[in-house]
Amino acid sequence: MTDEPKSAPPDEEPSASATAPADVATGEGDTEPAPSVVDDVASERDRLHDLLLRKTAEFDNFRKRTERERSEFARRAAEDLLRDLLPLVDDLERALAVTPKDSDGDSYRIGVELIHRQLLELLRKREVTPIAAVGEPFDPNLHEAVTEEPSDEHPEGTVIREFRRGYRLGDRLLRAAMVIVSAGNGADDEATPEADDSAPASEVGQT
After folding, report:
1. Residues 130-179: pLDDT tens digits?
2. Rg (Cα) of the chain, in Å, rounded?
3. How many helices (H) and strands (E) does the chain have?
């Protein structure tokens, strides 16, 4: 009699514990970071944010300060250049003052007048304007007094003569005007002697 082949034993099903993921088996996947770690991360985030804001503000202030310094340097350089041109204007005006006005055909005077006009036009375009002086009240912010002289025509404290013209650059003083100021006519200083009212009436007319 022949032996029937024995059937193979059925495959054993793997146990649930063997196939379960490690994190499920251990329960580690459900854990959350500790509160101290969250606080540390939030604190570091806030610190970096504050640092970014501070550095941004510092850079903005640096940029503004640099622009102001550059603008101030350019303004001072232009101011110095314009101030250096003023003595040349003075020399041209002195040359015109000693040249007879009836010599209009003289090429020398014509040339000086041309240069003088061109310089004044250049200064005007740069907002350089002359300061009024003669006949004006003395202003220490605009005028530099050389001396005082008595005057019958001008009241005390009035500019009666100008040695050197002054100029403004916009609303700022570029160069003060050198002037002579009136000290008045001096008549008020010569007081008439008055009779001594304290003398007794009986003494009046006695020899």
Report:
1. 999 999 999 999 999 999 999 888 889 999 999 999 999 988 999 999 99
2. 49
3. 4, 6
Diameter of the chain measured on Cα atoms: 198
Region of 86 (left: φ > 0; alpha: ψ -120 to 50; beta: rest) is alpha
* CB distance 131 to 177 below 8 Å: yes
- Tokens 């490690």 belong to which residue? 22
Residue type, 156: E
Hey, how many other C-beta atoms are within 10 angstroms of the C-beta on 173? Answer: 14
Asked if 116 contacts 93 with a C-beta cutoff of 8 angstroms, the reply is yes
pLDDT in tens, 96-136: 888 777 655 578 888 889 999 999 999 999 999 999 999 99
Instruction: Tell how strand 172-175 and strand 167-169 pair up.
Output: antiparallel
Q: Flag whether the pTM goes above 0.85.
A: no
In angstroms, rounded to a whole number, what is the distance separating the alpha carbons of residues 192 and 175?
44
Question: Which of helix, strand or coil describes residue 130?
Answer: strand
Domains of the chain and CATH, by start = 129-189 (2.30.22.10)
What residues contact residue 136 under an 8 Å CB cut-off, 6+ apart?
143, 158, 159
